[in-house]
């Protein structure tokens, strides 16, 4: 009998219920590939954008009517069960985590990935669920705060959206860097965000976080709720506005800020960094985790068979931290 795997296909762009379960032939790893039995995979806001084909200007790259890759999911953790002839970094039985990248297909039972990609040994003290989400909010927040924002001890940092996947990681990372952290959240998440390291939590339904003259060194807008023009009066001289949510209307501000004034609007596509650079950042993240200064926040864990429900929950916009399927 031919071995098979279970996965989820995106037949066309749309709502969560367009996700379709499929059974596919089990792949054999190429010379530099490893075959992974997936134990947990992330369900992220970015996955939802891919499923909907948003932003529209990305469709020429992703696929005009449906994603070219066709399958759902990027972040994963699992066990290597077979390797190609030229694989040197991994062996069967190794526990690993990483991301499928633009190949997608992590919301599945198995996947083949190249050993030179974003794939790392999983520490023994890290669960598969926690490891599966490291390449989403945690990695992006580290890149934005450490590399783009260059946060240092004593900086005043504002995190917009402190309870989500990116925000819950960003609060911890900024606090670990020695920053004075203010974060926004709903009232129900105030205690969580404070426990993560925010010295002040602002209920965004009651108070505007970006008051003129607030003099934040860094404003990290994790969900794209503001803009550089709105944030600019609340920035310190030479302050940085960081936002991973790219919209066409924001490009002029990013370009103009690089040549006009000392305040900056900065953007980077974390997932497009070279794999070796991303692996280096993940090593730094693992160091923080080993020091008990960072831990992924887990909201819900669904069976892989309930991926549609998991997507619908994430799309509701009220998750706390991360969602995975197992």
UniProtKB/TrEMBL annotation:
Top-level division of the source organism's lineage: Bacteria
GO MF term set: oxidoreductase activity
Transmembrane segments: none
Record domain Enoyl reductase (ER): where: 14-325
Pfam families: ADH_N, ADH_zinc_N_2
Protein's UniProt name: NADPH:quinone reductase
Source organism of this protein record: Roseivivax lentus
């Amino acid at each position: 009998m031919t071995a098979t795997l279970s996965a989820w296909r995106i037949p066309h762009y749309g709502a969560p219920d367009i996700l379709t379960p499929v059974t596919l032939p089990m792949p054999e790893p190429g010379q530099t590939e490893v075959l992974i039995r997936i134990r947990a995979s992330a369900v992220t806001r970015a996955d939802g954008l891919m499923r909907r084909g948003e932003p529209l200007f990305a469709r020429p790259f992703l696929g005009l009517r449906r994603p070219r890759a066709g399958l759902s999911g990027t972040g994963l953790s699992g066990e290597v069960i077979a390797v190609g002839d030229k694989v040197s970094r991994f062996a069967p039985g190794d526990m690993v985590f990483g991301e499928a990248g633009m190949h997608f297909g992590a919301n599945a039972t198995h996947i083949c990935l190249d050993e030179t990609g974003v794939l790392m040994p999983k520490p023994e003290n890290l669960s598969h669920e926690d490891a599966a989400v490291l390449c989403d909010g945690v990695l992006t927040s580290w890149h934005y705060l450490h590399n783009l924002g260059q946060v240092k001890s004593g900086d005043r940092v504002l995190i917009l959206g402190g309870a989500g996947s990116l925000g819950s990681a960003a609060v911890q990372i900024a606090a670990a860097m020695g920053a004075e952290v203010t974060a926004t959240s709903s009232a129900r998440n105030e205690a969580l965000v404070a426990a993560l390291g925010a010295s002040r939590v602002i209920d965004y339904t009651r108070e505007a976080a970006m008051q003129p003259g607030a003099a934040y060194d860094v404003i990290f807008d994790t969900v794209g709720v503001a803009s550089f023009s709105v944030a600019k009066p609340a920035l310190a001289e030479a302050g940085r506005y960081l936002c991973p949510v790219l919209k066409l209307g924001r490009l002029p501000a990013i370009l103009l800020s690089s040549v006009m004034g000392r305040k900056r609007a900065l953007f980077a596509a974390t997932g497009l960094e070279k794999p070796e650079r991303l692996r280096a950042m993940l090593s730094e993240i693992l160091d923080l985790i080993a020091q008990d200064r960072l831990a992924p926040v887990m909201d819900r864990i669904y069976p892989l068979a309930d991926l549609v429900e998991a997507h619908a929950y994430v799309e509701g916009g009220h998750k706390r931290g991360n969602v995975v399927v197992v």
